[in-house]
Design brief:
About 30% of the residues lie in helices and about 15% in strands. The protein is α/β, with parallel strands linked by helices. It has a three-stranded mixed sheet. It is globular.
Length: about 170
Amino acid sequence: SGFVNPNSKVHFCNNVNGTFSDFQIKDGGSSNDWSFDAIVYDLLTNASFGNQSDIYVMKKSMGGTSIDKDGATDYHWTADYEYLASENYSLLRSFEKTIRKAIELQGDKFEIKAFVWHQGEGDTVSLEVANKYYDNLKNMLAYVRGIVGNPRLHFFCGSISEKNVVS
């Protein structure tokens, strides 16, 4: 109930045009269902925590995806493009287009300071895929750091637990 919706300090881009609009929870927050990213945005802009002025977020999201070419679906974040059947299946390529377009349009008006990663279960389809997760994540992050030209870009990772545990 304490979250602000819409959060007018958060400007959101989820398109390959590189344009931003105010961030708003799709259902207006009425379901009290809050995503990891919405919580991060609120904490960064809340006076009790980060008290940041305006922040700009570039987002690409799709459930059931993986960073391994043999993950849950055909849609992957892999930096190994040669393994993908088509550019249409590379979420990382799509995200790269968004980042590059926003940088082109905004120039030096903003600096990309962090990468927030919220990974679900798409890389748990087999032990073989799960065992490659660390190296795949490291390669994907290195690729994004290369896109933004910052080898030390901050990286924040949230995850989804496998089961709801009630104590």
